[in-house]
Amino acid sequence: MTTPETPFGNTPVMSRKIARALDRCAQFLADRKGMAAVEFAYLVPLLMLMTFGTFEISRALLMNKRYQRTTAMVGDLIAREEKLGTNSAEAKSALDGIMRSAEHVMEPYSTSPLRMGIMQLRAASNDASKTTVEWSYSYHGKTVKSCPTLKAMPETGMISAGNAAIVIETEYDYTPYLRNILPGLINAMTWQDTMVFAPRDGSVDYGSTQPGNCPS
Fold first, then answer.
1. S-S: 136 plus which of 119, 151, 159, 201, CB 3.0-4.6 Å?
2. pLDDT, tens digit, for every residue of 134-178?
3. How far apart are CA 143 and CA 76, in angstroms?
């Protein structure tokens, strides 16, 4: 003989099912197995970013230091010269040799992303603010103004009337390793630097015999 069901079903059976369901929910909420793995999964991206970020910052600082040291070395070597050559071909060859030395200074980092423009500017005898390019040299396609184009000094008051100065403008394309890990978030950047040097002998001859003349 079966017990007739109430409109709400068999109450004792439903009560047991609800009790078991609540008990399982309580066990699930109380279970802490795998929590460390879940937390670690959340922390892994942050830990990786911190690790690679520390490496990337160190690499960028070292590379930037080498880049600035290279610019300073090139400017100092050129400023020491009195005459780069008897003609433009010899002068260019001398500067090519200086740039090969610069490549050694940049090691172990590549000089392929390095672009350098070297110019000698001379101020007019009656106006120090009016400076003209006497000669120029380009490394890796850096845009430079040619003789006898007017070009302002990086800052006012850096040169006196009638004097000459060596101006070096450099660029370096830096590509972070993190760019491959976080594309779109980390981008390449271009460093820029400008340095001015006073020639030891007043000017650096680039094949011409008279100051103010364009090299032949």
1. 119
2. 999 999 999 999 999 999 999 999 999 999 999 999 999 998 877
3. 21
Pairwise CA distance, residues 49 & 55, whole Å:
10
Nearest to 131 by CA among 209, 203, 59, 79: 203
DSSP state of 146: P
**Which amino acid would we find at residue 58?**
S
Cα gap 70→175, rounded to integer Å: 19
Dihedral angle sign, alpha carbons of residues 147, 151, 157, 158: negative
Whole-number Cα distances in Å, 151 to 135, 166, 167, 206, 212: 12, 12, 10, 18, 14
pLDDT (tens digit, 9 = 90+) per residue, 104-120? 999 999 999 999 999 99
- The percent of the chain in helix, strand and coil, each rounded to the nearest 5, is 40, 25, 35
How many angstroms separate the CA atoms of 196 and 202, rounded? Answer: 14
